[in-house]
Amino acid sequence: MFPTIVKAGLVIGGQTGVGTLRVGGKTVGYYNISAASYGLQAGMQTFSYVLFFMTESSLKYLTESGGWAIGSGPSVVVLDKGAAKSLTTTTLTQDVYAFPFGQRGLMAGIGLEGSKITRVQP
Question: Which of 26, 41, 55, 62 has the smallest count of CB within 10 Å of its CB?
């Protein structure tokens, strides 16, 4: 769960945030998410993400790897509110589901592409 991710850019941009990994209702680790981007962009925004690891292998990949570059490990599906409403236990087929929420600011688009998640030592 990443409660606050900050994204800003003017041609060159970046985003960062710190979150927690919770398993069975208990916090078991802290993680940083970061990304850099280049292109037609200007502005700043904050948003939140919750990632749901649906398989033991995807959770193991996160906890045992030195860092997880999204796009190179378990498959991730980003869902908006509309798509999330139609999910059931029989339609959940991917390794990880990401739910963005609480977007504020003046920058178009949010995404996980190119993001890296690394464990933060307490």
Answer: 26
What residues are paired with 18 via a beta bridge? 32
Q: Between the CA of residue 6 and those of 44, 80, 89, 105, what are the distances in Å? A: 7, 19, 32, 10
In sequence order, which residues have a C-beta less than 8 Å from that of residue 38 and are 6 or more positions away?
A: 11, 12, 13
Per-residue pLDDT tens digits for 76-99? 666 655 444 444 444 445 688 888
Structural domain that includes position 50 = 2-116
What lies within 8 Å, CB to CB, of 99 at 6+ separation is 49, 50, 51, 52, 78, 79, 84
Domain count, the chain: 1
pTM of the model: 0.77
Residue 122 lies in a domain: no
Q: How far apart are CA 116 and CA 118, in angstroms?
A: 6
